[in-house]
Write a structure and sequence with these properties.
heterodimer; A: mainly alpha; Cytochrome Bc1 Complex, Chain D, domain 2; 3 domains; 3-stranded antiparallel β-sheet; 32% helix; extended; B: alpha+beta; Sulfite Oxidase, Chain A, domain 2; 5-stranded mixed β-sheet; 5-stranded antiparallel β-sheet; 8 helices
C-alpha cells in the first residue's frame, strides 16, 4: 500500500464499501477524516455507529465469526448464593434478620458516629446522613430541594436519607456492602437492620402508619413497606416495561431537558434577562489548598528523605492516618507542631503507653491489635518526628 | 550542586532575557538574524560542552520499568482536601495535569482517579468475573479465561460527571488541572461485551444490567442492555499495559462516553434483569438536582464539551511580548458522539471564529483543536465552544444555568473562559449573569 496514513485508510476502505454494497451514505463529507455514518436515537440521546464490513468509525475490526468462542464455566449454586446478593426495591435479595432502633443507636454510636456525626447529622466532614426538612410543596416536591444558592448566604438543599433517597432498599444494600468504611462487610444482618432502623428513625420515617420509636424492630417485611418521602423526586421514570424508553425520550430532547447552546458566530447575545446582563465573574476566594502545590518548574526533585522511617510511615498510613490525618476526629494531627508539643510534654513513655492502651477517642493500638508494642512505638516516633519544626 | 544542573537553571532563566532582547532589537536587526549575529550574548549551553555530553550516561536498564526524566517531577496528579470527605484520601479524587499533556492520550500514571473506598489491590490469580441473571448460560471466568476472548482496542476519554462541579456558582480554582482535570483518555483494550453475551444468550426479558465492583465500596450501577450490546467493553489494558490499580486492575467495565462512575472498576459481576437496581451511586449520588426540586436520574452520557489548554492559568502567555503568532490549543470531547466543530472567541462570546481540528478525530474521544492567533498585548476573554455529530452545541454558562440551575453538581459542560490580562497572565473567570 502507498502511504500508511489514516485519512487514506478511511477513504479507501469506505470507498471500497461504497462500491461493493452502497451501504454507506454517498455524501462527500462521510469520507472526510472524523466524519462517520451515524444514527440518532441512542438511549443516552447520542448517536450510534454501524459496524459493517469490518469497519467501525475510524477502526477496523475482525469480522470473522466469534460464534463458539467459549471460555469459563457455569457458576456453582453456592457461588451464585455468595455473590448474587444485590438488593432491589421489590425486596429481592433482602437478608433475613431484624434489629431495633435502640440496638441501632448503640451500634451507630460505636461504629459510625465518629465519621457521620451524632444522630447521622454530619459536621465531621464526612457525608451527612440524616436531617433536613421534609416539608412538601403542594405539587409533592420537597420544598428545601428547590433551594438554589444563587446568592451568598442562601441555604443549600439537603440531600439526606430522609429528604432525598428514593428507596430504603438502597440503604440496607449499601450499609451491608460498604460500611463501616474501614471494615466493610463486617456487620451481621441483624446489625444492618438495627442501624438502618436507627437512621430511618432519625428521619422520622413512618412504616405502614407506624412511627419508629426506640423499641421499633425492623425486618425484611417492614422494610419492603417503606415509602421514602422523596420517592417521586426523580425522573425520567425508569420503572416498568417503558423504563428504558422513557429515558430515551427524555434525552432525545436535550435542549429542553438539560440545556443546549446555539452556534451563533457574530454579535451574539447571551441568554439573559433585562438588567441582568452577563458580566465577567472573577474568582472570589481562590481555593489554593492543593497537594502537591502548583508548579510547572522543571528542576531536580528535593532529596528524598531518609528511607529509615518508611516501614513506620507505611503502618501509620494504613492504621492511624484515617484519624490522625485531619482534625475532624479530635486526634492530634500529624504535622501539627503545637498539638504534638502538647502531647509529648507528658513524656515519650507515657504517650506510647496511651497509644497502646488507648485513651478517649483513641482505640488501643488504633484498633489494630495485631501490632506489637514496639511497632506502635515505632509509629509514634514517626508521628512525633513528622510533627517537629523542620530545621 | 552538580555543575550541569546549574547551567540548566540558568538556561530557563535566560529564556526570558532572550525574548526581551529579541524584542528590543529593531526590525532591521531582526532581518540580520539570518546571518551570524553579534547582537546577542553567547549562550553557554551552546558554546561550551554540556555535562551530559562529556560523561558516560546511565546504564540503559537502570529502571527496568521506565520512569520520566527527574526534571518532570512536578508533572503529577494533584488533590485538594476540599474534594474529599474530611481530607480522607480514600474517598476523594485526583486531577490530571491537563496543562502538561500532549495529544489525546493520558500517560497511565497521570490518569485522574476517583475512589469510594480506597484503591483495591487485587491478586490477579484470585480474580473472578461472574456474568449471570437473565442469560441462557451464566458463567464465571478467571482473568486468563477472560483474556482468551478476541480483543479490540478503542481510544476513549473517561470523565467524572463531577468535573468542574465546584464552579456552578462561580469560578473557584485558578487552574486548568482543577477546573477540568477529572478526566483522562486512553487506548483501552479488552473484549466487546456483546461478543461474550452473544455466546451466553441474553434472554429477551433482559432490559438492565447491574455492574458491580469488588472493592470495599462494592460500587454498583444499572445500565440499559442497549448500551451493553452497542459499544460496551470489558477491558483489562490501558495504553498497551495492564490497567493501573487506580483504574480498576485487573478488569473494569468501559461504557464509552458515559460517566466514568458507570465504568465500574475492579469489576466483579454483571447481572441481567428486567428491572433497574437503585444502587447508592444512582440515587443518593450521581443524580442531578434541578431547580424544580426534582432530580435527573440515569444521566449517562457526558455532554459536548471543550477547554483551551494553551494558554491556561498554569501555562500563561506572560513570556510573550506582542507580535508573535501563537497557537491557541485545546481539547474537545463528547460522550454523545464525535466532535465536528470547535469555535473560538477572543471577546468573551460575542464573536466567534472556527478553529481547526487536528490529529485523530474519533468518537467519544478527546479531539485536539487549534487556532493561530496574532498576539497583541491586550486583555482577552478566550472561550472555546464545541459541536458534535449528535447536534449538541456547548452551552454558555447562562444557557446551562437557565435549565440546570446551580445545585445539580453533575454534568457541567458550559463554556469556559480564560481571562488573558495585559501582562499575559491567564485567569479562570466566567461570563454569566448572577
Amino acid at each position: 500500500m502507498f502511504k500508511l496514513d489514516l485519512y487514506k485508510l478511511i477513504t479507501t476502505s469506505v470507498a471500497l464499501v461504497l462500491s461493493s454494497t452502497l451501504l454507506y451514505g454517498g455524501s462527500d463529507t462521510s469520507t472526510l477524516p472524523g466524519k462517520y455514518v451515524s444514527k440518532m436515537g441512542a438511549v443516552d440521546g447520542g448517536v450510534t455507529y454501524p459496524r459493517k464490513n469490518g469497519i467501525y468509525t475510524a477502526y477496523r475490526y475482525n469480522e470473522q465469526s466469534t460464534k463458539g468462542v467459549n471460555f469459563g464455566r457455569l457458576p456453582t449454586a453456592n457461588e451464585l448464593k455468595a455473590w448474587d446478593v444485590d438488593i432491589m426495591p421489590d425486596g429481592t435479595g433482602l437478608p433475613d434478620g431484624e434489629g431495633s432502633v435502640s440496638e441501632g443507636d448503640e451500634l451507630y454510636e460505636k461504629q459510625c458516629s465518629s465519621c457521620h456525626g451524632e444522630f447521622g447529622a454530619g459536621g465531621k466532614g464526612y457525608p451527612t446522613l440524616t436531617g433536613g426538612n421534609q416539608e412538601k410543596l403542594p405539587n409533592g416536591v420537597i420544598k428545601t430541594l428547590t433551594n438554589q444558592r444563587i446568592e451568598p448566604g442562601m441555604e443549600a438543599p439537603k440531600r439526606t436519607i430522609g429528604t432525598y433517597w428514593p428507596k430504603a432498599s438502597t440503604l440496607i444494600w449499601y450499609i451491608r456492602d460498604a460500611m463501616p468504611y474501614a471494615h466493610p462487610k463486617s456487620l451481621s444482618n441483624n446489625e444492618i437492620y438495627a442501624i438502618t432502623a436507627y437512621l430511618l428513625a432519625q428521619d422520622a420515617i413512618v412504616i405502614d402508619g407506624v412511627e419508629m420509636d426506640d423499641e421499633y424492630v425492623l425486618n425484611k417485611e417492614k422494610l419492603m413497606k417503606i415509602k421514602m418521602p422523596n420517592e417521586n423526586g426523580f425522573y425520567p421514570n425508569i420503572d416498568g416495561p417503558n423504563g428504558v424508553e422513557n429515558v430515551r425520550k427524555f434525552f432525545s430532547d436535550r435542549a429542553k431537558n438539560i440545556g443546549s447552546g446555539t452556534r451563533c458566530m457574530k454579535d451574539c447575545k447571551d441568554l439573559s434577562t433585562k438588567g441582568n446582563e452577563p458580566t465577567v465573574m472573577k474568582i472570589d476566594n481562590e481555593i489554593t489548598d492543593v497537594v502537591p502545590p502548583y508548579t510547572t518548574v522543571r528542576d531536580l526533585p528535593p532529596e528524598i528523605e531518609s528511607k529509615l522511617e518508611s516501614k513506620a510511615e507505611k503502618m501509620y498510613n494504613d492504621a492511624c492516618k484515617l484519624c490522625h490525618g485531619s482534625d475532624k476526629m479530635g486526634a492530634p494531627v500529624v504535622g501539627d507542631i503545637e498539638a504534638w508539643n502538647k502531647v509529648t510534654q507528658k513524656g515519650f513513655e507515657k504517650v506510647v503507653h496511651n497509644a497502646i492502651d488507648g485513651m478517649g477517642g483513641m482505640p488501643p493500638k488504633g484498633g489494630f491489635e495485631n501490632f506489637t508494642n514496639s511497632e506502635v512505638q515505632m509509629i509514634v516516633e514517626f508521628m512525633i518526628n513528622s510533627s517537629k519544626k523542620k530545621q | 550542586m552538580d555543575k550541569a544542573f546549574k547551567t540548566e537553571e540558568l538556561n530557563s532563566l535566560s529564556r526570558r532575557d532572550f525574548f526581551k532582547k529579541t524584542a528590543s532589537v529593531s526590525a532591521v536587526a531582526a532581518a540580520a538574524i539570518l546571518s551570524p549575529s553579534s547582537l546577542f550574548a553567547d549562550d553557554e549551553n551552546i558554546v561550551h560542552h554540556t555535562q551530559w555530553g562529556t560523561t558516560l550516561g546511565n546504564e540503559l536498564n537502570e529502571n527496568p520499568y521506565g520512569l520520566p526524566s527527574k526534571y518532570e517531577h512536578n508533572v503529577v496528579r494533584r488533590t485538594s482536601s476540599l474534594m474529599s470527605s474530611a481530607g480522607d484520601m480514600h474517598a476523594a479524587v485526583s486531577m490530571t495535569p491537563l496543562h502538561e499533556l500532549e495529544g489525546i492520550i493520558t500517560p497511565n500514571g497521570l490518569h485522574f482517579t476517583r475512589t469510594h473506598n480506597g484503591i483495591a489491590q487485587i491478586d490477579p490469580n484470585k480474580y473472578r468475573l461472574m456474568i449471570h441473571g437473565l442469560v441462557e448460560k451464566p458463567i464465571v471466568l478467571t482473568l486468563e479465561q477472560l483474556k482468551r476472548y478476541p480483543s479490540e482496542s478503542r481510544i476513549h476519554f473517561l470523565e467524572c460527571p463531577s468535573n468542574g462541579a465546584g464552579e456552578w456558582k462561580g469560578p473557584q480554582f485558578n487552574s486548568l488541572q482543577f477546573l477540568k482535570g477529572m478526566m483522562s483518555a486512553s487506548e483501552w483494550s479488552g473484549v466487546r461485551l456483546k461478543t461474550i453475551l452473544d455466546e451466553l444468550g441474553l434472554k429477551p426479558t433482559a432490559k438492565w444490567m447491574l455492574a458491580e465492583g469488588s472493592d470495599g465500596s462494592e460500587m454498583g450501577r444499572s445500565v440499559p442492555v442497549e448500551k451493553a450490546l452497542d459499544d460496551a467493553m470489558i477491558v483489562w489494558a490501558q495504553n498497551g499495559e495492564a490497567l493501573r490499580p487506580e483504574q480498576g486492575y485487573p478488569v473494569r467495565l468501559l461504557l464509552p462516553g458515559w460517566e466514568a462512575n458507570l465504568c465500574v472498576k475492579w469489576l466483579k459481576r454483571l447481572e441481567f434483569s428486567d428491572k433497574p437496581w437503585y444502587a447508592k451511586e444512582e440515587t443518593s449520588k450521581y443524580t442531578a438536582l434541578m431547580p424544580s426540586g426534582k432530580a435527573i436520574q440515569h444521566f449517562y452520557a457526558l455532554e459536548v464539551n471543550s477547554v483551551i489548554t494553551s494558554p491556561c492559568p498554569e501555562k500563561p502567555w506572560s513570556d510573550l511580548v506582542g507580535g508573535e503568532l501563537v497557537e491557541i490549543e485545546g481539547l474537545a470531547w463528547s460522550g454523545h458522539g464525535t466532535i465536528t466543530n470547535v469555535d473560538i472567541s477572543l471577546d468573551g462570546g460575542k464573536n466567534w471564529v472556527e478553529a481547526k481540528l487536528k490529529g485523530l478525530v474519533l468518537p467519544k474521544s478527546w479531539t485536539r483543536f487549534s487556532y493561530m492567533h496574532k498576539y497583541v498585548k491586550e486583555p482577552l476573554l478566550l472561550q472555546s465552544r464545541a459541536v458534535d455529530d449528535s447536534k449538541n452545541v456547548q452551552p454558555t454558562v447562562n444557557q446551562e444555568k437557565a435549565i440546570m440551575g446551580v445545585e445539580g453538581v453533575y454534568h457541567r459542560n458550559s463554556i469556559c473562559t480564560w481571562e488573558v490580562t495585559l501582562k499575559g497572565e491567564v485567569n479562570n473567570v466566567q461570563v454569566r449573569s448572577i
